[in-house]
Design a protein that fits this description.
- This protein has helices at about 1-20, 25-40, 50-70, and strands at about 90-95, 100-105, 110-115, 125-130, 135-140.
- The protein has about 140 residues and is α+β, with helices and mostly antiparallel strands.
- A hairpin with a 2-residue loop joins strand 2 (about 100-105) and strand 3 (about 110-115).
- Helix 1 runs antiparallel to helix 2 and helix 2 (about 25-40) packs antiparallel against helix 3 (about 50-70).
- It is rod-shaped, with a radius of gyration of 30 Å.
- The model has no long low-confidence stretch (mean pLDDT about 90).
């Protein structure tokens, strides 16, 4: 009878986990299943309560952090949007200085500013950052 109660509680915890999706109720479900297994053994009925507690705490401290890290880690993500532009090369289409200029990249013209000296038309540059709709560029160094 104790096994049925523990497994019923495990089912309730699983349903609560589906709603919350924070892996706390899943840890409690693991504790309930462990207590249900112990209830099958010829031991005192009350031994299931500490087993539930220990299995739940172990799950919360050992399994849950690993699962959350795996789910929510950013990992090796590929840059998107404007971040994708940083590091790419472009060609100066209108002389670029610290106050004005433009570059062409993939057929698009962008406003650009230099981090150093004046860069004449035709200079190959590297985009070092993006500020709003403006590319900040450095001249490509030939070594």
């Amino acid at each position: 009878m104790g096994t049925v109660i523990w497994l019923g509680l495990a089912l309730v915890c699983v349903l609560a986990e589906i709603v919350s999706f924070n892996f706390v109720f899943a840890s409690f479900a693991i504790g309930c299943v462990a207590a249900g297994v112990v209830a099958l053994l010829p031991v005192s009925t009350f031994i299931g309560i500490p087993v539930f507690g220990l299995a739940s705490v172990a799950s919360l401290t050992l399994i849950r952090p690993a699962i959350l890290k795996k789910i929510y880690s950013r990992g090796d993500h590929e840059p998107t949007g404007l971040d994708k532009m940083i590091g790419r090369t472009a060609v100066v289409s209108s002389a670029v200085s610290q106050t004005s200029g433009s570059i062409t990249i993939d057929g698009e013209t962008w406003s650009a500013r230099s981090t150093a000296a004046l860069m004449p038309i035709g200079t190959t540059v590297t985009i070092t950052s993006i500020m709003g709709a403006m590319a900040i560029v450095d001249e490509v160094k030939v070594s």
